[in-house]
Every structure is written in structure tokens, then in C-alpha cells.
């Protein structure tokens, strides 16, 4: 019997089935008492709230998923036994963090390309603003950070493909790439000037959309904790 509310669930308005993490053993604290279930949308006691109105990423619909005395059959328990929910989630979390980091790199590349094109076309004082050294500095910083993030993503992905534990590398890549993407977005708006604040230009939407990268799949602060705990546990750095 499930009771509770899950917030900000991506694709909830369209989903026909949900993977639900729930505490099945209140006596066990932490991760041990959590189990994972598959719950179909038409299960009695499950209902989906209205779509959220968000600052950005409006193409990815989210909503609350509410459970009120929602009875789930035993065969819907993922893994066949209780208490495996957290472990199940951890199996996909590192992959998800690498994927978000890769997405951040791709979006940052697009934003830098747009900023570069605008800087080369927009003229001020009789010459393209790309010739101004402080504009060049923003372009250069963005390119260097994108390159660094791309290398991190590729390294983490190769290690995961090789079957290695990439908890540390995935957290590093996710933290750096998403923070980098936010900085590139800010510089791109700055290079566009007032035009960057207008919906007419794509950078305005990107600026809103990329803010979420630093929140989902674990906030930047969570990644910092994951990285630090890995270092302390192993007693050595990765490099």
C-alpha cells in the first residue's frame, strides 16, 4: 500500500507506468528500508497532478504523482525482494549523471557557436565586437571550459563502458559540466548584450533551460558531497 507524493516527475503527464521508490520497512533507517516498484498509471489510488509551469525546459513536462492507499501487487516489486530500491537506483544514477554532463557540453557548444556568430556579425564603433579583447576573453574562457568538460565526460563514459565504478568520475563530470554550462550561458547573453535578453534570440531560452542542469540528477552540492566522500573513503585522488 503506497501513500505519499512524488514531486516534479518528468513526463508524468504522459507516462503510462511509473518506477516508484518507497520505504517498506520503517524500522530500517537510511537506504536499507527502501524498495522499488512498477506502478501502472491506471492503478486505483494513483493520480497525476496538473502540469507544472516552469521557468525553462518547458518541452519536458513535469507534474506531481500522488498515491493514496494505492495497492501494488507483490509481483511489481523490482528485484523480487524488499530493501533493494536504493541499490536499484544507484545502478542507473552514475549513467544519468554522465548523460546530463554530456548534454550540458552539447548545449554549451551550441551557445558558444551562437555567441561567436553574433560577435562576428554585430558591429560597434565601425568593427565587429569580436575584435574587442574583453569579448574575446569571454569566447576563449568558454571554449577552454567546454573542452575540459568534454574530456571529463569522455573519460567517465569510457571507464563506465569498461565496467569500472565511476561514482567519483560521474559526479565530477556532472558538477563541472553543468556549472560550466551556466557560465557559458551567462557569457553568451553578455556578448549578445540587450539582444540576449530578448525572446527573439535563442540564447534567452537557453539561459533559462540550462539552469536546471545544476539541480536534477543531484544538485551541485550533492555532487560535492559524493566527490569528497569518495576521496575520504579511498584515501587517494583520481588523476
TrEMBL record:
One of its GO terms (molecular function) is acyl-CoA dehydrogenase activity. The keyword Flavoprotein applies. Signal peptide: none annotated. Residues 1-70 form the Acyl-CoA oxidase/dehydrogenase middle domain. SUPFAM superfamilies: Acyl-CoA dehydrogenase C-terminal domain-like, Acyl-CoA dehydrogenase NM domain-like. Gene3D superfamilies: Butyryl-CoA Dehydrogenase, subunit A, domain 2, Butyryl-CoA Dehydrogenase, subunit A, domain 3. Keywords: FAD, Flavoprotein, Oxidoreductase. Its cofactor is FAD. The keyword Flavoprotein applies. Residues 83-231 form the Acyl-CoA dehydrogenase/oxidase C-terminal domain. Belongs to the acyl-CoA dehydrogenase family. PANTHER family: ACYL-COA DEHYDROGENASE. This is Putative acyl-CoA dehydrogenase. The lineage of its organism: unclassified sequences, environmental samples.
